[in-house]
Amino acid sequence: MEFVQNNLMWIGLAVVSGGMLLWQVISGRSGGQGVSPMQATLMINREDAIVIDVREAAEFAQGHIPNSRHIPLAALEKRVSELDKFRERAVIVNCASGNRSGSACGTLRKHGFARVFNLTGGISAWDQAGLPVTKK
């Protein structure tokens, strides 16, 4: 008991950081499985995976993965029918850092998409890996 009283701040910090890690694991399961930029590249080239960019229009215009489809997260629920023809293909979802795309993965799964993947680190990780980005 004396240990707990003397180290209350450290115990609190451990509980909070553990809770944050647990939250990431739980929230990641509601979305798609994470894939690295290199794994995503292999899926695009070998499995003809499609890429959905859920960032806002201004972010998308600054640069995006070539041939990605732009559907902002706020519009995904309304526009999911545009993706029906890709229901059996692998779908890679990306945003700036991987947070919004996790939510989008959950939406796609809810609508029956079985092979949904979240680009870990988003377009930032893609760019840092030296992979192509286009403004077209």
Question: What does it look like?
Answer:
The protein is α/β, with parallel strands linked by helices. It folds into two domains: 1-30; 31-128, Rhodanese-like domain (Oxidized Rhodanese, domain 1). 52% of the residues lie in helices and 12% in strands. The chain is built from seven helices and five strands, in the order ααβαβαβαβαβα. The chain has helices spanning 2-6, 8-30, 37-47, 57-62, 73-79, 99-110, 122-128, and strands spanning 33-35, 50-53, 69-70, 91-94, 116-119. A five-stranded parallel beta sheet has the order 1-5-4-2-3. β2, α4 (57-62) and β3 form a beta-alpha-beta unit. The protein starts with a helix and ends in an 8-residue tail after the last helix.
Features:
136 residues, alpha/beta, Oxidized Rhodanese, domain 1, 2 domains, five-stranded parallel beta sheet, 52% helix, elongated
SSE layout and pairing:
Layout: H1 2-6, H2 8-30, E1 33-35, H3 37-47, E2 50-53, H4 57-62, E3 69-70, H5 73-79, E4 91-94, H6 99-110, E5 116-119, H7 122-128
Parallel strand pairs: 1-5, 2-3, 2-4, 4-5
Helix pairs in contact: 2-6
Short description:
The chain has 136 residues and is α/β, with parallel strands linked by helices.
Q: Write down the Rg.
A: 18 Å
- General form: elongated
Instruction: Using the 3D structure, state the CATH architecture of the largest domain.
Output: 3-Layer(aba) Sandwich
CATH superfamily of the largest domain: Rhodanese-like domain
- What is the N-to-C order of secondary-structure elements (H for helix, E for strand)? HHEHEHEHEHEH
